[in-house]
Amino acid sequence: MIVLLSNYRVGSSTFIKELSAQTNKKYQLEFTGEYLHPEASARYRRPSEDIEIYKIMPDQIQPGFNDEFCLDYLAKAQEIIYLLRKNFTEQVLSQTVCDLTGEWHPDTMSNTPRDISVDITEFKKNEIILLRNLESQSNFYKRYPGKIIYLEDRYDTEQKYKSKSNVLNHDELKSTINVQEYF
Question: Quick one: how far is CA 147 from the chain centroid?
Answer without folding.
Answer: 15
